[in-house]
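sry for the spam today, last one i promise. C-alpha coordinates for design, 70 residues
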Protein backbone atom coordinates (compact mmCIF):
# COMPACT_ATOMS: atom_id res chain seq x y z
CA UNK A 1 0.00 0.00 0.00
CA UNK A 2 1.30 3.47 -0.90
CA UNK A 3 0.84 6.31 1.58
CA UNK A 4 1.04 9.92 0.46
CA UNK A 5 0.92 13.25 2.26
CA UNK A 6 1.47 16.87 1.32
CA UNK A 7 3.98 18.66 3.49
CA UNK A 8 2.67 22.02 2.19
CA UNK A 9 -1.03 21.64 3.09
CA UNK A 10 -2.64 22.68 6.38
CA UNK A 11 0.39 24.52 7.78
CA UNK A 12 -0.33 25.43 11.41
CA UNK A 13 2.50 27.02 13.39
CA UNK A 14 2.70 26.92 17.18
CA UNK A 15 3.06 30.09 19.21
CA UNK A 16 5.91 30.52 21.67
CA UNK A 17 9.13 28.54 21.74
CA UNK A 18 7.96 25.12 20.53
CA UNK A 19 7.88 24.08 16.85
CA UNK A 20 4.70 22.51 15.45
CA UNK A 21 5.10 18.74 14.98
CA UNK A 22 2.67 16.58 12.99
CA UNK A 23 2.91 12.91 11.97
CA UNK A 24 2.32 12.84 8.21
CA UNK A 25 2.79 9.14 7.39
CA UNK A 26 3.30 6.20 9.75
CA UNK A 27 3.92 2.63 8.62
CA UNK A 28 5.55 -0.48 10.10
CA UNK A 29 8.85 0.61 8.50
CA UNK A 30 8.92 4.38 8.91
CA UNK A 31 7.35 7.47 10.40
CA UNK A 32 7.48 10.78 8.56
CA UNK A 33 6.84 13.94 10.52
CA UNK A 34 6.63 17.60 9.59
CA UNK A 35 8.22 20.13 11.91
CA UNK A 36 7.32 23.79 11.33
CA UNK A 37 9.54 26.45 12.88
CA UNK A 38 8.87 30.11 13.40
CA UNK A 39 11.82 32.51 13.38
CA UNK A 40 13.91 31.95 16.50
CA UNK A 41 12.61 28.45 17.29
CA UNK A 42 15.12 25.62 17.56
CA UNK A 43 15.13 21.84 17.29
CA UNK A 44 16.30 19.98 20.40
CA UNK A 45 19.04 17.40 20.07
CA UNK A 46 17.79 14.11 18.59
CA UNK A 47 17.52 11.47 21.34
CA UNK A 48 15.52 8.63 19.74
CA UNK A 49 17.19 5.20 19.52
CA UNK A 50 17.23 5.25 15.70
CA UNK A 51 18.97 7.59 13.24
CA UNK A 52 16.92 10.22 11.42
CA UNK A 53 16.93 11.71 7.94
CA UNK A 54 16.17 15.42 7.70
CA UNK A 55 14.82 16.96 4.52
CA UNK A 56 14.64 20.75 4.58
CA UNK A 57 12.03 22.10 2.18
CA UNK A 58 12.47 25.85 2.82
CA UNK A 59 14.80 27.52 5.29
CA UNK A 60 17.34 30.09 6.29
CA UNK A 61 19.65 28.32 8.73
CA UNK A 62 22.34 29.82 10.94
CA UNK A 63 24.64 28.40 13.60
CA UNK A 64 23.97 24.64 13.24
CA UNK A 65 24.88 22.55 16.29
CA UNK A 66 28.27 20.86 16.37
CA UNK A 67 26.66 17.40 16.28
CA UNK A 68 25.07 17.97 12.86
CA UNK A 69 26.60 15.87 10.06
CA UNK A 70 26.11 17.04 6.45
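last one done:
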Amino acid sequence: MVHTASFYEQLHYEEGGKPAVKVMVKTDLAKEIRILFRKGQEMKEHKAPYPIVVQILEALISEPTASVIY
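The chain has a mean pLDDT of 77. ok im logging off now
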